[in-house]
Amino acid sequence: MPLKSDKRLTQAERTEISDNRMLEAAVSLIVDYGPSATSLKEIGLRAGYSRGLAG
Question: Where exactly are the structural domains of the chain?
Fold first, then answer.
């Protein structure tokens, strides 16, 4: 079993990860449903954020 890394991510690293998750979710939804059927709420949910945060 691999050991958990003791390295904590910086705020910049966490922001980059979050931005990438949102971008990947947006692209995926636009490809699947088109831009007119894609909302910020759906992007947030697909990226794995809570409903309150996404909406």
Answer: 12-54
Residue 25 burial (10 A CB sphere; 0-12, 13-18, 19+): buried
Domain 12-54 grouped into CATH 3.30.450: no
In the predicted model, residues of the chain with pLDDT beneath 50 are none
DSSP letters along the chain, please? -PPPP-PPPPHHHHHHHHHHHHHHHHHHHHHHH-GGG--HHHHHHHTT--HHHH-
Block residue for tokens 């691999």: 2
| pLDDT at position 4 | 65
Q: What does pTM read for this prediction?
A: 0.76
**Alpha-carbon distance 36 to 20, whole Å?**
21
